[in-house]
Amino acid sequence: MPGTAASAHASGHGQLLGIGQVLAQLQPEFPELTPSKLRFLEEQRLVSPARTAAGYRKFSNADVERITVVLSMQRDQYLPLKVIRTHLEAIDAGETPALPGAASAATFLAGARRYRREELIREAGATRTLLDEAISASLLPAAEQYGEDALGVLQALVALRGVGIEARHLRGLRAAAERDAALVERAIAPSRRSDAADKARAAERALELADHLETVHTAVVRGTLARLGR
């Protein structure tokens, strides 16, 4: 927004912030956030800061909230930016879209829920033993707090245990995930440079490739089950 657009952008949104102020506010939670990453988010049409007459970017409180949502969904849901952008655009249009297997951006706008160990166990209908087994099998990290993705995993483990599939039976998933991650790392290696924006693009590409691998994995499992059921 060139020229006097900055003052218009500020209307109803409080004081406008420069890039340094945005970084100071968000880096404690998102330490990898850099000026280049902010510019990359703008390039990806995820945030539209105002511009002063001299061309400096100025961010409203709403912009900062939106950046927080995007970064939270990347970190906690492992979603590609294009998926997040489409989801946010639908919300902007007054729709209430759902993200399969993930929390809606509306959840993050309201404040993404974080669970302490006992809260996670209670919400998932699990036991301390099951959580410890999930951590031992490298299906979940050992942490003080967990996000919605961890809740989904623990709920799935509760359902699987109900039919006799234990966390220890899934240890191979970690090895398979590490092999897949190594494939993705090799694929994006040529595009990773020292520039933070290039690294952000490479990370975004990695998430897209991970989605493709998940699609193939799901199709193979379903196909195998279909053959077994014949």
Folded structure, characterized:
With 230 residues, the chain is mainly α. The protein has two domains: 105 residues, Multidrug-efflux Transporter Regulator, Chain: A, Domain 2 (Orthogonal Bundle), CATH 1.10.1660.10; 58 residues, no CATH class. The protein is 60% helix and 3% strand. It has eleven helices and four strands; from the N terminus they run H-H-H-E-E-H-H-H-E-H-H-E-H-H-H. A hairpin with a 5-residue loop joins strand 1 and strand 2. The longest helix is centred in the last third of the chain and has 33 residues. The N and C termini lie far apart (61 Å). The N terminus is likely disordered.
Salient structural properties:
230 residues; mainly alpha; Multidrug-efflux Transporter Regulator, Chain: A, Domain 2; 2 domains; two-stranded antiparallel ribbon; 11 helices; globular; disordered N terminus
List the helices and strands and how they pair.
Elements: H1 5-10, H2 19-26, H3 35-43, E1 50-51, E2 57-58, H4 61-77, H5 81-92, H6 105-109, E3 115-116, H7 117-124, H8 128-136, E4 145-146, H9 148-161, H10 171-188, H11 196-228
Antiparallel strand pairs: 1-2, 3-4
Helix pairs in contact: 3-11, 7-9, 10-11
